[in-house]
Amino acid sequence: MALEHGSLLADVPVNQAEEVFQPLLARPGLKIERIVSNGQASPAGFWYDSAEAEWVLLVSGSAALEVEGESALRVMQPGEWLHLPAHCRHRVAWTDAAQPTVWLAVHYDAGDKAPAPQPLA
User: Fold this and answer.
1) How many CA atoms lie within 13 A of 39 on its CB side?
2) Integer Cα distance of 86 and 50 in angstroms
3) For residue 10, how many other CB atoms are within 10 A of its CB?
4) What is the pTM of this model?
5) Which of 49, 59, 113, 120 is the most buried (most CB within 10 A)?
6) What is the tens place of the pLDDT at every residue in 68-120?
């Protein structure tokens, strides 16, 4: 068995024209990636609508997400996370332009019979 390791905050790309998506671990039904944003936002009218569920943690920087059907933006600060069920349409309204915004995203196949995740008490 080979161990895999790395640092989420090593070699963070800065001043990139596009968001940087870096796969960290991939297994059947599971993908973990680092996303680095440098002031990017989703294009006007664009919505993410994934067949997989996503759990995302904001590690550094700041951002705001727009979730379809919600009237207010979800402004996120370091340490805050959000679970997005499959087909939960969302978009990035803005990310911090003064510093890199680093995300840890876990994409997984929830399956039709999987119970909904329960919040921790």
Assistant:
1) 7
2) 6
3) 7
4) 0.86
5) 59
6) 999 999 999 999 999 999 999 999 999 999 999 999 999 999 875 555 566 67
